[in-house]
Amino acid sequence: MNREQQAALMRAVAKAADRVAFASLYAYFAPRLKSHLMRLGAPEDVAEELVQESMVTAWRRAATFDPQQASAATWLFTIARNKRIDRLRRERRPAFDPADPALVPDPEPAPDSGVDAAQAEARMRSALDSLPPDQMRLLQLAFFEDLSHRDIAARESLPLGTVKSRIRLALARLKGRLAE
């Protein structure tokens, strides 16, 4: 079958949904497509499925065939190649595992944990409020603004040793208050 005959059959399929023309195309191209897919590494059963899918696509999209762009053979082999690529991508995609720890939501917190958190926060606020203002300010800069001791010393115009000792004293007082 030459290029002009293939194009004429494709036009008949596109314009009139000519089943006889499609049967001729199928009879001619199906074995060639299957051989090509098997040379690409597809097992025989997969190659047969891909030929079926390719020819169904050709039937449905026959109106998009343009003989000025490519021959019918090129068009059909491209469809088959794309079907093979799609199959490979689906096979390589990992299967969904509902037990995957990344997909399992965190358990709901226990009802009493909210009360515990609120009590712990109240104790922490009380302990922070008991600190002298200069120590409280340095803790805020160190922990809430994430400044280094050197940056705090420069900002507050204090010696570095003073900043370190005040933060250490504040943390010791907090520890003592929270342990009570």
Automatic annotation (TrEMBL):
Ranges where the RNA polymerase sigma-70 region domain occurs: 25-93
Alphabetical list of Gene3D superfamilies matching this protein: 1.10.1740.10, Winged helix-like DNA-binding domain superfamily/Winged helix DNA-binding domain
TM annotation in the entry: none
Pfam short name (any one): Sigma70_r2
Boundaries of every RNA polymerase sigma factor 70 region 4 type domain copy: 123-174
Alphabetical keyword list: DNA-binding, Sigma factor, Transcription, Transcription regulation
Domain of life: Bacteria
SUPFAM superfamilies in alphabetical order: Sigma2 domain of RNA polymerase sigma factors, Sigma3 and sigma4 domains of RNA polymerase sigma factors
Region (Disordered): 96-121
Family under the similarity heading: Belongs to the sigma-70 factor family. ECF subfamily.
Protein name: RNA polymerase sigma factor
